[in-house]
User: Fold these one by one.
Assistant:
Number 1:
Amino acid sequence: MNSFSYVRPDEIDVAIDDLSVHHAAKFIAGGTNLLDLMKENVERPARLVDINRLPLQTIDDTAEGGLRLGALVTNADTAYNEQVEKRYPLLSQAILAGASPQLRNMATNGGNLFQRTRCYYFYDTDMPCNKRKPGSGCGAINGYNRIHAILGTSDSCIATHPSDMCVALRALDAVVHVSGRLGERTIPMADFHRLPGNTPQYDNTVQPGELVTAIELPAKGFADHYAYLKLRDRASYAFALVSVAVGLDINNDGTITEARIALGGVAHKPWRRPESEEQLVGQSASKEVFQLVADSIIDGAKGYGHNTFKVELARRAIVRALMQASKLEKIS
Amino acid sequence: MQSTSILSAEVTVALPEKSLVTLTINGEKKQLELAPWTTLLDALREYLDLTGTKKGCDHGQCGACTVLVDGKRINSCLTLAVMKEGASITTIEGLATVDENATVQLHPLQDAFIQHDAYQCGYCTPGQICSAVGLMNEGRAKTTDDIRELMSGNICRCGAYPHIVDAISEVMQIDKNS
């Protein structure tokens, strides 16, 4: 790890100002990803601004009937929060599918949004990586790319976003609150993470000096019909090869009135295709309908060799998650 | 051109100051002077001689460094000591108690690990036991499947998992066949 200076402000404004006026400064909260990357020399901040004492530690009801998750509430406290478990079980399940209990006790909601890719070439400073070192090339495209993206890729980068939580947040249409020197603004989850294009060094649309203060969940939680299906190389504590978050609204007569389907492990951001979800509206739940929708969601998916299996895996995972959410198949 | 130009350009910044960090370790208040980049794990092992907590992967992947911070289990390799200012830390050395006759009473989990032969090389054991204490504090595990899932952050390369689950389920009074 490189040497760095350290401060621990108590106020949001002080933290934002400190980050803005110091060269190569970074916020640190749980530290589970940042410190790991610093040990690998992938991140080399000159200053750490510890935000753990800022007043962003609560989960509160919103006036709109939703829930506001403080940026510094841990992943564990969020997943086990009574309101989250009851009203947003999809989010609770997705969080608990990620990392380990120890890491979930440390990792924060804000930090989870900023997780960086687990691409091996990004982590290895001896390898080319356009995300770590713009212009150096991509080792993964023609290299070992088993864990890499099949949708929304570019010639510069085929990295995936590793989060489980963010896949559920994307399905739930969560909104991220950020604060900066110019004031506060909100970013819908749809626009928070970005596709790599020719600037893969930018994971998201947060501007330098901005601080995530909260994640807001809209009232609709899909608590009656939901599923988070995560497929990985071992039974627990591994990143997703493919994951699917599903939320369905189903009428008393069995007609689907709304569908949300978000994919993890397949792209640079949680992947959704709203026009495919629309195909489910007005339909009754059935495997045949779900297969058509799955084909539509992964339309255009492209494998790079080692990860080509993900195309079929994603298709089947979408169908299975929809079967589980509509209760046509039991969750095993 | 001098070949050392890159190096000499970089080494112009003075090293940041060490700072005083106060931690309560196994019930005792300790004050340490630490550089900010000292992890909690290194503080325990290198500055407090508490070498029961093990350094395995040093990247939060193996769980050997698990300690309890204010009762919650964390990976001590992925946090800086300075970030835990004022916190109460429990390590494997702090689990046993000593009664008025100076007799050491092992923690029930320590006893159960011995009874069930829940280790081979023993390197992961302090982390396994601290993690299991955290698991019991959380109160979420109801079955042995739950124990396996919620202990997945602790790797045992000897493969003593069945006995580890036996030891924990006995202390938690969970049916071994659940």
Note: Chain B has six helices and seven strands.
Number 2:
Amino acid sequence: MTGRRLLDKLWESNEILRRDDGTSLLWVDRHLVHEGSHHAFAKIAERGVPVAEPGLTFGVADHYAPTRGAPATDAIARMIDTLAANTAKHGITCFGLDDPRQGIVHVIGPEQGLTLPGLLINCGDSHTSTHGAFGALAFGIGATEVAHVLATQTVWQKKPRAMRIEVTGRLGAGVGAKDLALAWIAKLGADGARGHAIEYTGPAVKSLSMEGRMTLCNLSIEGGARFGMIAPDETTFAYVKGRPFAPGGADWDRAVALWSSLPSDADASYDVSVSLDASEIAPIVTWGTTPEDALPVTATIPDPARMSGAAAERARNALDYMGLSPGRALKDIPVDQVFIGSCTNARIEDLREAAGVLAGRKAKVPGIVSPGSQQVKSQAEAEGLDRIFIDAGLDWVGSGCSMCVAMNGDHVEPGKRCASTTNRNFRGRQGRGARTHLMSPAMVAAAAVTGHLTDVRELLKERAPA
Amino acid sequence: MRGWRRHTGVAIALDRENVDTDQLIPARFMSTPRAEGYGDFLLYDFRNDVYGNPLSDFPLNAVPNASVLISRRNFGSGSSREAAVYALVDFGIRVVIAPSFGDIFASNAVNNGLLPARVSSADADAAIRKLQQGPLDTSVDLLERHIRLGKMAFDFIIDDVWQQKLINGWDDIDLTQNHKQAITAFRALHAQAMPWAVQVQQTNFRSAGRDTVSQ
């Protein structure tokens, strides 16, 4: 018998039953809801069923949360009020706008210790894969499934195939988890991991902080994987320990013992294995309209004339939308603004990384910095990072999904180009006609300083002691 | 949700790869209650000019009675927003045919009676080229997993479970209620094995935010 993988162990520990057709009924340990869950609450209201486990359900206002002042429109205010009303009605704890625990759902789950190794976590949001960074089985679901979890605390799911992405070597200076994620997505494609649960392994993954691991797992869905996960280890335990909702006392020791048994067995095998060398990865930026359109910042814009069929057509459409021409150096592309935020890159380490580049420098273009949670905001202010951003000329604003999904009124104007730490460069994602280039927080900071896409390593070199 | 076995209707093509959920329904429309209908939001920024005037030559505008949409790889990639499916369904689309689909989109589709029919890239390509000359009558047999498009005929792939769900119009909550006993038993065992998973308690007030302020 071959060894069991992290995926197998997590699946088994939450599987209630498996039907003859292979679909499992899984127990949901944590269900996170946000304003977008209104469709699901309406569905259970229609059926007249209660929420099965209000104590395992947590709400947070993030998608529509204003980052400056009051909600921009009545419709936006209504979305936030509806979440508050629905959670109150069912006795669900909700981190609303005035709660210091408020923030982006995939930031606050781990921050509050709601996210733990070994748990199954669902949320009506595709970036729920983020929580897999703790060795949890975490995946995004649609509104019908959210209603099902509300009503039953379970979810039907067919076990995905297992993919391993092993990252050997070490990431260079100025290169981080975001670059690593964009590198594999560019290599395998935006649907390269479709139908699979990814387990990230190897020394370069192991040496990432929890923040870095969350960024990596967060972007799994951009390569098509509903699940991304990393085996829990000492780094994980150190992060979790002492969090408000983490187990304490004797439970803590018991939990760590159990979590220590989760890593894949040495003789486990995978349906697909992919290997990357971290030392070969340069800072990466996207040039097109899907995250697979990603290249090292040192490259030039690809030429559709050298591609064939649908790929050439798609590249032509993408370049047309992005207002770019083939052959141009990526580093020559000027940007109109920058955005630092989102569930991908708005944790304290991300802000430190960006501030490290911006310290003592001025931004040539406007931009906003939206910390991932109110806790991250307080922490950043305690460290003086807010001063660095403000002194550089950027706006330091409140916490929420903000300009990543452009639901709260924060958006990029048509035709404007934004260097962004977010997760999707889709057409219209940051606003109708918005042109998004995805990159790491350090790279966005570098673009802010120069006003064009820039290799952050050059700015870091200027800082290096002689 | 009502089940179905066979669908006949008019097919149109959307000749693009990676039609993501942000294109299927831009985020700005998602605060609308479903009861108001999502059909007008479908592919809004493709169908309309910057002033919101419909582009008459866009297939959805030219063929408003279309019920089968054929597109290219990675259709429905991106977010978990079920609103992308609502927009298709409310417009009148019953079947989307493509070489591949985003995982979450596909399961959302099935939960709303919309068939995500997977076909080979070659069949999708041939169908799209054929539809460039205009819309065509089509029939989709869910039981036989077979599509007829004008004079073309080809098979599609759908997971067995999803096929049954679409045919029977099953509702998962009803199905799950039949397993209530198993769920209750599991919960009790789970609470023994991992008490912290089932009884969520705030164990540390030091960094809990609100509690920090009040201390």
Note: Chain B has two domains: 6-171, 179-214.
